[in-house]
What we know:
The structure is a single chain. A 7-stranded mixed sheet has the order 2-3-4-5-6-1-7. It contains 5 helices and 7 strands. It is an alpha+beta fold. Helix 1 (30-40) packs across helix 3 (50-61). The longest helix has 15 residues, at 118-132.
Amino acid sequence: MTDMVTLIAKTTPLERDLTFPSRTVEAADAARLGELYFTAYDTSVVGDSLDAALADMKESLAGKYGALLPTASHVALDEAGKIIAAVLVVEHAVGDDTPDTPFIIELITDRQHRRRGLAEDLVLATMDTLFNEGRSDVALRVEASNSAALALYLSLDFRRWPPKKQTTSKNSTPRRSPSWINS
């Protein structure tokens, strides 16, 4: 299994304009989010079929990885209004080995729109929404070897979250991790 790092940050108000138009996630976005999920990652991450990716995305939106916070979950749109990136946030991650705080379960960017600041914009939008809702922290999990993701999160003042005690829950559902950030 890949080594994962849990990071946490204080939420903050937005201090600059976002680069791309965005809006909050809607239930009707499930199909496009599934397509985006399937095309953005290798099959080792999402499964070997678009149908599997669509099913997993529908389950994500339905709460498999925690109760979705739709106001804090955002999509970035291209000039035609098509979703090109997304961040999904839950009330708190499933399991007992993460902080009890809103948790980013997915951060996806379309392969053709990487390296344009979309991931940063979406995380900043999430942090602003959570700040305005009175939530002080947000967390996520990332592969320790994903230097691009770690660089982004560190630039946004995320820091390693040290659990008070390391436990493993036999009944915890595997959670999504924005470990393949493709910004």
